[in-house]
């Protein structure tokens, strides 16, 4: 199908068409799985002058290319590369924009493995990192140094859910010729159009909503026209590509992404409102709620919310109370991922690693991923847990 025609459809329709070509697939609607390392060339000229779409398995396969092209169209990007995990995507993006001697600005609310990477490998490379208040907005200009090359954003924070003022930060970055990278895993391009808001590079863990079934690991990195050549170059240096089966599963997940994301939104909002009314809950940290940090920015810039949010318990509850709640749950599992079909819950404490902002939520905190189970069953599971706390 002609891409110009596809682009005229609503996004839900585009997603059913992108990254597949039945006319080249013997009429089958889904792209086949290409597994392989060696590519053979028909002539010496083709071999020596690299006259082939792919020259080796590390350069990609038709399966990988199908997913890359589909995601580029969905995200409004010049190009996309894939990696074997969400953390791999973060690494690819940062190594694309940074070099020895550079200075990086990183939000204090960032995904903890990102912080670990900065403290570990980037420190070894002679790259310094300054953490900033995620709510700083245009005030980030005061933190830019002569060697600042990159501003990283994560909106919302994946535990504390601060929404960043992306347009304000991007405006400052462009004024100083600083690259911007955003972790857009929570919203996906369906709920936040990172490149349209000026972000140079957008990444996410396809492990989450793109996969949707908790059975694959994948990272996705897309770039605008300015940064795409450098991103592809970095990717080619590292050959950090996912397996063929994972790309096939991601393409399959893409077809139902809009429906699943909208359902995740509705279910999470239902449970969040129910929790807000519970006496055991002191506060709900959900970007769609007025008392969540950056709520007005969320209303301005986002078109929806996904299935992940946090709650702050009444200050009277202790760690022992939380253990009683969590250990007896029948439906909610305790796991660090999200975006799949199953509901998950974990305790967390941002105070353990924040360095610029203080994390003082008043009570102990839990993060919830709302899956596809019946809402009444989920509420009963939590209600039983609250009863055990008492």
Q: Which range best describes the helical content: under 10%, 10-25%, 25-40%, 40-55%, 55-70% or over 70%?
A: 25-40%
Mean pLDDT: 95
Shape: globular
Number of strands: 11
Structure class? alpha/beta
- In what order do the strands lie side by side in the largest sheet? 1-7-6-5-4-2-3
- N-to-C span: 60 Å
Ranges with pLDDT <50 over ≥5 residues? Answer: none
- Please tally the helical runs, counting DSSP H or I stretches of 4 or more residues: 13
Radius of gyration: 22 Å
Largest sheet: 7 strands, mixed
User: Beta-strand level of the residues, as a percent range?
Assistant: 5-15%
Secondary-structure element pattern, one letter each: HHHHEHEHEEHEHEEHHEHEHEEH
Topology:
Blueprint: H1 3-6, H2 11-17, H3 44-48, H4 62-75, E1 79-83, H5 86-97, E2 103-107, H6 112-124, E3 128-132, E4 148-154, H7 166-175, E5 179-183, H8 188-191, E6 201-205, E7 219-223, H9 228-238, H10 244-276, E8 281-285, H11 295-301, E9 308-313, H12 319-327, E10 344-348, E11 365-369, H13 375-389
Parallel strand pairs: 2-3, 2-4, 4-5, 5-6
Antiparallel strand pairs: 1-7, 6-7, 8-9, 9-11, 10-11
Helix pairs in contact: 2-10, 4-10, 5-9, 12-13
Give a quick set of tags describing it.
single chain; 390 residues; alpha/beta; 7-stranded mixed beta sheet; 4-stranded antiparallel beta sheet
Overview of the structural elements:
The protein has 390 residues and is an alpha/beta fold. Helix 7 links the parallel strand 4 and strand 5. The protein has helices at 3-6, 11-17, 44-48, 62-75, 86-97, 112-124, 166-175, 188-191, 228-238, 244-276, 295-301, 319-327, 375-389; strands at residues 79-83, 103-107, 128-132, 148-154, 179-183, 201-205, 219-223, 281-285, 308-313, 344-348, 365-369. The strands form two sheets. Strands 1-7-6-5-4-2-3 form a seven-stranded mixed beta sheet, sandwiched between helices. Strands 8-9-11-10 form a four-stranded antiparallel beta sheet, covered by helices on one side. It contains 13 helices and eleven strands.
